[in-house]
Amino acid sequence: MSENKHHKRREIDHTADTINCISNLPDFPSLDLDDFIIYVSEMNYPCLPELMTSFLNFEERILRSRDAPQIEKFHLSCHECFPSRVSSWISNAVLRNVREVYLCLYSGDPSTIPQCIFGCKTLVILRILIFSDIEIPSSIYLPCLKILDLSLVGFTDNESTQKLFSSCAVLEELVLCSCAFETLSNITISILTLKKLTIKERTDYDIIYSSGCKIKIDAKNLTYLEYNGHLTNEIFLNNVSSLVKACIDIPILHESEKEVACRAVDLLEGLQNVVCFSVSNCTMEANL
């Protein structure tokens, strides 16, 4: 019994030492912070609060240091989210002229994502996974953003959502994965520079049977389109003459088969100029 306790103690000390070693490293062009190291082993649970405090203090020291260098890439994954602290860390990364941001946050608080990230003039890649709505400011300035990847994000209203998409002047790739559109009624994704669009819809049954949102795609330089979902939202393709490749997967739900089939027809009609077309068997069955 005592030997087992000693083994656990060594595991805990090793984890703490790892965090301490990282905190003593010199300048970071890339900063990848992930609290998974704390949760990876059951050995850590006896002193989880102490390890979490050590991890949080480490992040504070790195991101609040006045001598901290410019951060090229900032990746942050937090299972335990403290909205005000996480927001502060992200804000500090923005101040360091960050070019790539990836946030994986198990948070239900919209304030976790600071609004300053939507005004980061150096940002090229932005990937956000958060179990929450996001607060989109009235003023957005993302002059260098080329990739926007949003997962599990909730959009609150038509106007702010429309503003986000229309403010990305050089965006080339847009990914919307399991995002919540149920509070929206009508939006247009109109991006002249957009080349690649991926939409993967949520499959919750309460979402599937909601009224959905009308999403109009207006992107004349779009070359690739991928859609996967039950067409909870109505998607209309307009001015997509450059579209070369499309991958469509619409699983059948017999309870709403007729409605899904009608929406699928509207979507497929916009693919007339596609050269390479991949469509699932379920999608074909829904339209027969």
UniProtKB/TrEMBL annotation:
At1g61320/AtMIF1 LRR domain mapped to chain residues: 69-246
InterPro entries, sorted: FBL13/AtMIF1-like, LRR_At1g61320_AtMIF1, LRR_dom_sf
Domain of life: Eukaryota
Pfam families noted in UniProt: LRR_At1g61320_AtMIF1 (PF23622)
Protein name in UniProt: At1g61320/AtMIF1 LRR domain-containing protein
Annotated organism of origin: Mikania micrantha (bitter vine)
